[in-house]
Design brief:
Layout lengths: L2 H25 L5 H27 L9 H17 L3 H25 L5 H21 L4
Helix pairs in contact: 1-2, 1-3, 1-4, 1-5, 2-5, 4-5
């Protein structure tokens, strides 16, 4: 175990929590059944990666990293404001695509910065990045 591994796992965990929180908020505002199903599919996939991350952290005797409270609050306010003002599915898709982009950037930066992280945590991080990329591609059909 090294500090880079722990920090990378905490970044993965935080990203998964932010994603699942956002997906649950947006899902309630979506009216298109196909889009709701897609959101549910990716919510489940993010939760699965989050559980794998928790298992690795617990093996090292570490706790999960909560998302930055300010970022979490701002995301909730932004989601609420945009969906209250316009119940359009395209707005929800835009919010989700922005979230994917932010997740890809944040996690890619963490992978590069935390270069001494072990292979298992790096593999998990790349899996989450690929999940975000697939989600963004799938969302393009609803944009």
């Amino acid at each position: 175990m090294n500090q880079d591994t722990i920090e990378l796992l905490k970044e993965i965990d935080s990203g998964c929590m932010m994603a699942t929180n956002s997906l649950e908020q947006v899902r309630d505002a979506v009216t298109d059944c196909s889009l709701k199903n897609l959101i549910e599919k990716y919510d489940v996939a993010h939760a699965k990666i989050g559980r794998e991350c928790h298992e690795q952290l617990h093996c090292y005797g570490k706790k999960e990293k909560e998302p930055n409270p300010m970022a979490k609050a701002m995301a909730k306010v932004e989601t609420g404001m945009k969906t209250i003002n316009d119940q359009d599915n395209k707005k929800a898709v835009g919010l989700l695509m922005d979230g994917c982009s932010m997740g890809i950037r944040t996690l890619s930066s963490a992978v590069n910065r935390l270069s001494n992280a072990d292979e298992k945590s790096r593999h998990l991080a790349h899996g989450l990045i690929e999940l975000e990329e697939r989600f963004m591609d799938d969302l393009k059909g609803f944009a």
